[in-house]
Write a structure and sequence with these properties.
heterodimer, A: mainly alpha, B: alpha/beta, Glutaredoxin, about 20% strand, elongated, transmembrane (chain B), membrane (chain B), Thioredoxin_domain (chain B)
């Protein structure tokens, strides 16, 4: 009973309000990232020895020129994730048990998206606070993922992304989605997790397979 | 009805993942085989601009440094590399460079002229109309560079690289 009251409070927010706050947080985070992480020095270290100095300078200039895209893209990508995952959960819930209204699916997803923001925040903070993280190692640094337990140099490049998705943030994302499904469709934990696995999980699997396929073409 | 619909959606997703998984498995296997085969200069077959065939025999047992570049005349990185070839031609005088492309002969002719590649007799521009290059060397990234010496692969670079890297005898991992 107490748990239901708490969950009820957790979902008594307006989607667009949280979406705007999260979008703003993403823009601020990317501003900090672009200012303190992806600096000219970062690219010089990363590309040193790979291409000529003049090309590195050109890359940095080009990046500066198109920097605004990264700020515009954040809210759009967040909205895209919310719309797609909510659509999947809406369909899954409708087919597997009591339907969940689409606006409630949006609430479920945006709450889980806090975890994605948190993981990005931790990754950026680690780079800023840990001087041992070089730009090269930062590329393949995924906090709390199984790749942290492995020697990244021994993993084929096309497997790095799928393995990086096996992380504790992803577990938390699934739990938050299942919590929302459980609350809105009155399903049991097991059934709610099953709904999440067959909707969001299936989409994630398709996405990973597509990414491996594309990466293989460029390796 | 709901059950049937979920089975159809599940079936379609399963079919898609299985299909992609099969292709991924096949591609990994094929790339491994090609990777091993490309450790020594593979028996390639491309075409010169006069449409005559250019193959391994056309190299007449050439054993010095051979740089094979897969390029496209429209690619900015390839255009830059072509400029660097000409600018640093002294450094490259003991190499043979095969520039292979799937582009049409007209754009290749323009590229050859625009970047003054005719000033370098050690560059041969070849056509690969059937896009066989990835099958010989393993990757179809543009630009990509495969450096051979004594017919053995010394280095490969997927993407733009420095001229000095192409001249290195030690394995460079980027």
């Amino acid at each position: 009973m107490i748990e239901d009251v708490k969950t009820n409070e957790l979902y008594s927010f307006r989607f667009w309000g949280v979406f705007l706050v999260l979008s703003l947080l993403y823009v601020i985070l990317y501003y900090i990232t672009n200012t303190y992480v992806y600096t000219g020095e970062f690219y010089e270290t990363l590309l040193h020895g790979t291409v000529d100095e003049e090309r590195i300078t050109k890359t940095i200039e080009m990046r500066q020129h198109f920097l605004w895209i990264s700020y515009v893209a954040q809210p759009l990508l967040l909205l895209l994730r919310c719309v797609i995952f909510s659509g999947a959960i809406y369909t899954g819930a409708m087919l597997s048990g009591p339907a969940i209204e689409y606006k409630n699916c949006l609430r479920i997803v945006i709450l889980a998206e806090m975890v994605t923001f948190l993981s990005t925040l931790i990754k950026i903070s680690c780079f800023l606070l840990l001087p041992s993280l070089s730009p090269k190692s930062f590329q393949y640094f995924f906090p709390l993922s199984v790749t942290q337990l492995m020697n990244i140099n021994t993993i084929p490049k096309y497997f790095i992304y799928p393995l990086s998705q096996l992380n504790l943030f992803e577990v938390a994302y699934w739990v938050l989605l299942a919590m929302g499904v459980k609350y809105f469709s009155q399903q049991k934990w097991g059934q709610a997790l099953k709904t999440v696995a067959s909707t969001y999980g299936a989409l994630l699997l398709v996405w990973i397979v597509v990414i491996i396929f594309i990466s293989l073409q460029f390796s | 009805m709901k059950r049937k619909l979920s089975m159809v959606i599940g079936g379609v997703l399963l079919l898609f993942v299985s299909f992609m998984g099969y292709h991924i498995f096949k591609t990994i296997k094929k790339k491994k085989e090609i990777g091993q085969q490309a450790n020594t200069l593979p028996a390639f077959r491309f075409y010169k601009q006069d449409k005559t065939e250019f193959n391994l025999d056309s190299l007449h047992n050439y054993s010095d440094r051979l740089i094979i570049e897969y390029f496209s005349p429209d690619c900015e990185h390839c255009q830059y590399t072509a400029q660097k070839y000409v600018a640093e031609k002294e450094k490259l005088q003991n190499c043979k460079i095969l520039m292979v492309t799937f582009s049409d002969s007209l754009s290749v002719a323009h590229f050859y002229q625009d970047y003054k590649l005719n000033t370098m007799p050690n560059i041969i521009v070849l056509s690969d109309p059937g896009i066989k290059f990835p099958g010989y060397f393993g990757a179809g990234v543009i630009p990509s560079f495969y450096v051979y010496k004594n017919n053995r692969l010394v280095n490969k670079f997927l993407g733009e690289t420095r001229i000095n890297n192409l001249l290195s005898d030690t394995l460079i991992k980027l």
